[in-house]
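Re-run with default settings, no changes from the original entry. Doing this only to confirm the output is reproducible before filing.
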Amino acid sequence: RVLSDLLLVTGATPLLRAAKTFDVPAMKLLIAHGARLDLPTATGVTPLMAAAGYGSLECDIRGYGPGIPHYMTSDVQAKSIAALTVLIDAGADINAATTGGGNAPGGRGKSPGQTALFGAAFWGWTDVVKFLAGHGAKLDAQDSQGRTAVDAALGRAGGHERGASIKVFKETADTLLKLCGEREGCKIAAPAPASS
């Protein structure tokens, strides 16, 4: 069986591909030539979600050279924010939600209703979470199973390393809870303690 990049399948556009790799010059060129900002994949993943890390894997090396995981570089959050800025400035929907994929190959626990914020929280990208929140991301958005981005940060919305492990990013979860507490009308139930 050949392992492939499961985000770049049915419906992946050139803009989504550029957003996924944080290729800001290509994104600007595509947008200038009429690329549709919110055109999703078959499972509802938009370019903005891809730029926030949604749907990607640790083994994504994305042009960094052999064996260098893209999501483990020290500049990954800055690059994500640069790509997100291009999309938001052009009018992309920061709160677009997935349409599904939990049973599709590579679904990795995804269910309808997940947003870009879930992607950033899943990776523990606290700076990206703050950026998205500052640009109007709905902090208490829930997927079809009632999970929020806090659950993604706590490893309750899919596993890492192709599902082989669960990573917990408590700082990111705490940041989401704090930001929600500061926003009028935002409600996220405090997560239950992890079971042992």
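The helical segments are 14-20, 24-32, 47-51, 76-90, 116-123, 126-134, 149-153, 170-182. The longest helix spans residues 76-90.
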